[in-house]
């Protein structure tokens, strides 16, 4: 079974059934393969190809009990696969390069090699000076400078001379962007709105990881709502409502705001899965199929 140009699998058992491509007992959503026992449920109907996230904003929301970092890692793996020519621009606030290199090696990707080939561009914000200065004006200018760095990288990649097709921009921790902005959520939102313009300007994908439950007061809750408003796809990783289970690590809710129904109309669609994170893979399955 091989991978097609749009990031979809090709093979004799493939069929498109709704929230994603359905291949035998697998659902492919946003480039990830969701292993599902049995046949596809009836609520999976025809809609736009979620495996093709070009020009979209994908927001990953997690909490203290259930980290959503595995989604970021596996989306990175799918984007950097050998069959793909896509380039990742990774903006790291939480961890250094070697942290992601170690994790991605377990998933079959060598970030050092990919960096040398120009397919992985890493901005280590813990080492850059543009956000270290204190003061509202300087903080805002620091975020503007960061955007200019991202914008310049995207323009170079998207230029006709390089002949590179798709760009994915990833930010690993929005809460630390807010810390770098001296707690100003308005600066963070302005920065993200600028980044969002790149989805239409150069057709890139923007993937963001945010810790939803760290916000308690009304102002910070508003930031969460604004983030969900900016996103085209929202993926929420949460603990099981029924408590701990040996073979289930949590539940995943995927909200696709740009789903297209059988009548060709755009509508929102919500899909729910459970998951188990392994050392070099993740299993996704329907609720109740494991204990």
Residue stretches low in confidence (pLDDT < 50, at least 5 long) are 1-29, 33-51
The largest pleated sheet is described as: 9 strands, mixed
Structural class of the secondary elements? alpha/beta
- Principal-axis shape equals globular
- Number of separate helices: 7
Strand arrangement across the biggest beta sheet: 9-8-10-11-7-12-13-14-15
The fraction of residues assigned to DSSP E strands is 25-35%
The CATH superfamily of the largest domain appears as P-loop containing nucleotide triphosphate hydrolases
What does this structure look like?
- 30% of the residues lie in helices and 27% in strands.
- The chain has two domains: 1-52 and 259-291, no CATH class; 57-231, P-loop containing nucleotide triphosphate hydrolases (Rossmann fold, 3-Layer(aba) Sandwich), CATH 3.40.50.300.
- The chain has helices at residues 69-79, 97-106, 111-116, 136-158, 174-180, 185-201, 218-230; strands at residues 2-3, 9-10, 14-16, 21-23, 26-29, 32-35, 57-62, 87-92, 120-124, 167-171, 205-211, 233-238, 250-260, 266-277, 282-285.
- It has 291 residues and is of the alpha/beta class.
- Residues 1-29 and 33-51 have low confidence and may be disordered.
- The strands form three sheets. It has a nine-stranded mixed beta sheet with strand order 9-8-10-11-7-12-13-14-15, with helices on both faces. Strands 3-4-5-6 form a four-stranded antiparallel beta sheet.
- It has seven helices and 15 strands.
Give the gist of this structure.
It is built from 7 helices and 15 strands.
Keywords:
single chain; 291 residues; alpha/beta; Rossmann fold; 2 domains; four-stranded antiparallel β-sheet; 27% strand; disordered N terminus; P-loop_NTPase; Elongator complex protein 6; ELP6
